[in-house]
Amino acid sequence: MTEFRSIEAATGQPHGPSFAVHGPDDVAAACAAASAAFDVYRTTDRETRAAFLERIADEIVAIGDELIEAAMRESGLPRPRLEGERGRTAGQLRLFAGVVRKGAWQQLRIDPALPERQPLPRPDIRLRMIPLGPVAVFGASNFPLAFSTAGGDTASALAAGCPVVVKGHPAHPQTGALVADAIARAVAASGLPQGVFGHLVGPSNELGAALVQDPRIAAVGFTGSRAGGLALSRLAQAREVPIPVYAEMSSINPVVLLPEALASRGAALGTAFVGSLTMGAGQFCTNPGLVLAIEGAGLDEFIANAVAALEAAAPQTMLTTGICKAYAEGVTALEGNGKIETLAKGLPAAGTQGAAALFRTTAGAFLADKAMGHEVFGAASLVVVCKDEEEVLSVLKGLEGQLTATLHLDAADEALAGRLLPTLETKAGRILANGWPTGVEVCHAMVHGGPFPATSDARTTSVGSLAIDRFLRPVSYQNLATGLLPAELRDDALGDGAPRLVDGVLTV
Amino acid sequence: MTEFRSIEAATGQPHGPSFAVHGPDDVAAACAAASAAFDVYRTTDRETRAAFLERIADEIVAIGDELIEAAMRESGLPRPRLEGERGRTAGQLRLFAGVVRKGAWQQLRIDPALPERQPLPRPDIRLRMIPLGPVAVFGASNFPLAFSTAGGDTASALAAGCPVVVKGHPAHPQTGALVADAIARAVAASGLPQGVFGHLVGPSNELGAALVQDPRIAAVGFTGSRAGGLALSRLAQAREVPIPVYAEMSSINPVVLLPEALASRGAALGTAFVGSLTMGAGQFCTNPGLVLAIEGAGLDEFIANAVAALEAAAPQTMLTTGICKAYAEGVTALEGNGKIETLAKGLPAAGTQGAAALFRTTAGAFLADKAMGHEVFGAASLVVVCKDEEEVLSVLKGLEGQLTATLHLDAADEALAGRLLPTLETKAGRILANGWPTGVEVCHAMVHGGPFPATSDARTTSVGSLAIDRFLRPVSYQNLATGLLPAELRDDALGDGAPRLVDGVLTV
Fold it and tell me: Which phi and psi (to 5°) does residue A404 adopt?
């Protein structure tokens, strides 16, 4: 295949012009350019790099409605959602610009020489973080703007000083091309080497595999399926020089309804839950796919209202025909499971739409069948009814790693919540109270990550400013003359606004 | 086998009592105890944990001369070196105690709620680092105290709040048992659960494999051979839940003699170089195994003095018969390579001793034969003579990842050094000027790490206070009531001395 076309999500039919399919030569050229640009880009000063990130944001916003319309057509997502997503995309680029300017990410440390120390003098030792090298980014289908071509991974890698080669998601090539062109304009306007950003497109997995295997690639950011993330991780580990893979893969995001909250507001929780479940056709990494509740007051009301809301839920166009098919299969498997009761289905779906679905089972059945804990990507959720607190804890302890865990609680539930928290902390990257996991704030304290298989590396986050750390490594400099030290580690750089640990004491 | 005995390094003969060989049941019991202790240990307050680390240091020092004598017998290393190593072992435990008290490792972040924000309010989000879980530590043979049972990996993991299960190095079981008992006394004296520290011994690789495969183990610290580190990494990746492995493996630590320095003090550099090369029988991860110099003034003097010093070097007992044999084989391979000239051998070795050896080749030959770049663990080094600056750069660019890279330079060499630095930064974790890589300062700015295969994970260090980060992961808490928040994230904890990023602003 040498060309491929964009598919309109609502119809499943090709639309618009063809795109050239990139092959091994294009991968090699993009990686060579990224590698050649690395030393120039990583030594840009903080202001230059920050202004570049802001310029990307400006260029994306300046595309205007053409971008929103392309994303609507390719993803099936509605206009307000995509306008919000564009704002988020620009916002996270600007957030990282601010982070780059402040300079804490450099983690500067200075241990001055102690020439009189006994029995041996201490040399002068200084440390900074440097970027890993060119980063391969695999965009997600479910956030065609905020987690794709100029999404979170691209923003954090560029902020760290790494050139980026994006493997564009084949579900939105037009959207991706518009954004890639905007980034290229920002690169040129900032006077940076063209290799700071590369963009490869094509429908095959081989393209992505070749990118991860290129020896010039130093790290990988990925958001997508468990199978895809694991495949890339295996390729990265099998390289002559293994590299880190940050894959955000799979999560069912347990929501625990604690007894007092359930008794006092079960009905309202049922309605709100379906609002979170069906948003964006349920196509969020943080979609609430599992609800745990103890038998007792309020549970019937929760279920009754959830059923009523879900049965009135309109079907929604899904991102791709493949996702639509996988969702339908997942729902069929749940329906066909003798230990699972179908509580409700949304209004009937046609074509590339998905209909919401709600199921119920018991803690005993859930614990006996690992498949019930697998993600069904879309607006399906399973209510697990537990006999008592112990069963709730058993179900939580048996879960795989998660992006989020949510508690709905009243003040009188705090003792039980306190019992559950240590387990939730070891299972999830983010713990919420009295909210819904969909909606991931881009800020400094956000963790969008978590233990395997939520991600391939729980030591990090893919949303929020902490994500810059993923693409850095420490280097120390011993007894280097001032003229050879990186500028930010010289004595005369003190006071440049970046925090430093000087002889163990943090100075700002 | 159910028992094994300590081997005296100097004679290669068994010595002292037998040790029970641990098997799968012991691995499971140690991991179960570590897992059971995790929640209690990780929630200790900073002062309790710091005092525990200091108590370990005190208990190790209190063992007295029995420990030094056991380590001398088992490692063949001399008394002053081991007394210094004991000081370093205690010192790094005390360094981490200070780090724990200061609290920066928690990386606290608070983004307060913005209830009036448009179009959506921002929830209250707070972040802290929590420990990964029980850590398996594989001690090194070449630092029977500072990188073994209570060595750097154990200290940093315990500081992070992780219980530790040590797989004791079979080359020093008596030393290891004395230290393990000291840690156990500190655990008991601190009122901590016994599972905070476990100790497994035995001569087989299966023991370590079972430990890495135990599902309760959350991370691995290892210092040793490339083959060993790669084997553990593969096991860790193949688990149902993969875990991070921090393996410090292989490095030849290039030393570059720049022309002006060579011309002005080639002779003195030659003598000093052999001092670094032969220290501790060359059994350092940072041993200078590769010297690069451009043909020209001073090179003959460098070589002449290095040869004279090396030919006068006494043979030294090596750590184990296996290391002694591997070293002899490595030297024989270099001697048998037609492109390598043997410059000098140390005084003849007998039994378990190793004799130093110095070789010379050309940059062209080195670039054509990858095997010349492999580590020979011991006091052997290869001088690579380059025609010009370009050849120096080519050799450096062709090297695998390194723990260190060293420049010897005079002021007039700075321009050339500046040309080499970007390459050195991408190849090594620590860059030194006018010193020798042996001797790794335990401080805040130290990086003892580096790109593969120096380590399996260049994003970190195994020496110095930054090492605590290896065993932590971020968790964020959204809208949790004060009573449920971890104490350090509550509003009333401000002012406890730990730095916090509040709405993006660092406050100390």
Answer: -140, 160
